[in-house]
Each structure stands twice: as structure tokens, then as C-alpha cells.
Amino acid sequence: MASDLPTLLRFFKALADESRLRLLSLVAQRERSVQELAMLLALKEPTASHHLAMLKSLGLVRVRQDGNTRWYRFEPGSLAGLARSVLGDEQIAALVGDVPPAAWDDHVLGAFVLPDGTLKTIPASRKKRRIVLAWMLRDFEAGRRYPEAEVNALIQRRHWDSATLRREMIGYHMLAREHGIYWRLDESEWRDESGQAA
Questions:
Q1: What is the C-alpha to C-alpha distance for residues 182 and 176, in angstroms, rounded to an integer?
Q2: pTM to 2 decimals?
Q3: What is the pLDDT of residue 90?
Q4: Signed CA dihedral, 153, 155, 158, 162: sign only
Q5: Where residue 2 falls among pLDDT bands split at 50, 70, 90?
Q6: In which element (H, E) is residue 145 found?
Q7: Residue 39 sits in the same domain as residue 113
Q8: Domain identity same for 49 and 109
Q9: C-alpha angle 125/128/130, rounded to 5°?
Q10: Higher confidence at residue 75 or residue 194?
Q11: Separate counts of helices (H) and strands (E) for the chain
């Protein structure tokens, strides 16, 4: 989809100009000649022709030759076609290219984790806190049961406030607890920062 980026840039560049927008508006009302459009917008004919050529290259207007006169009309189907081909959710998301999925997580951890592996502070933002908690869960083995004292010891390797962090891990469904025994839940059961299934 990266090949659609030049088309999108040309499209937005074309519509980012007041004269081109006004030209498009006039030819959307009815078919008009270059001479009429230039007169209505107080433009020189070569300038109007240049703007119309850009709109035509994107398929936003169509041109009809009648003798020496060129008539322009808005092409409404082109907008729908462009929207389908390059403005869908997947296409827009693909424009950024390959961004490492963990880039934001790494940035957050870099801001909150000291070189010795301890936390500077517990993040106030729930989104950032979830990232830190998920990082701390790496210390817990899947399938293993932990008494509360061992859970506290693992958490305190990273930060002194084991009670708060333990409650947060349970709140995010990262840890489960029953009769003082804790275990790590599968990531498919974890909740996001709004409390919804991730």
C-alpha cells in the first residue's frame, strides 16, 4: 500500500489550494469552459488550465473538447473510487510502513525503568502502567503457583510497593488469586487500560 502514498499526497496537495477547490466547486455545479472559470475566479487562463490539469490527473474532473473550447465537469465517481482504493482503514494504516510493534512499549519502559532494572516510579497513565506491568510479568513463569510472599518478593525486585502493583496485576487480569495463591494468566485473558479484554 506504500505505493498509494504518492496518490494520496497528490490528492491532498490538489485540494489544499483555494483556487483548485473553487474550480472544483464551480465545475460541480455545471460544465464550464476554461475561459469562464478563469473569468469567475479572476485567474489568467493558463493558471486556470494548470489547476484543472492537476484536478484532471487525479480524475476529479473530466474534460470535453468542443472545437477550440475545452469544457470541464466534476467527476463525482472519482472521489468514491479514491476512497475505496486508498482511504480505507487498512490502506491508511499501511501508509506508515513497518513500525516495530514494540516501539511504544520500549519508549515507555525506557522512561520508567532504571538501568538496574528497578522502576523509577509507577506510571500515573493507565496505558503506560499496563506496559510496565506486562514487563514485570516476565518474572512470573506460566503455569506456576506462587504464594503471596513470593509474589511480593518478585515485585519488590522492581519496586518497593508490591501491594499496589500486585492489585494492579490482578485488576488487569494478568494475575489470578485464590486462597493466597497467585498464578500468571494467559495474555489472551489480560485487560486493556479501560478494563476491556485486550
A1: 5
A2: 0.53
A3: 66
A4: negative
A5: very low
A6: strand 145-147
A7: no
A8: no
A9: 105
A10: 75
A11: 10, 6
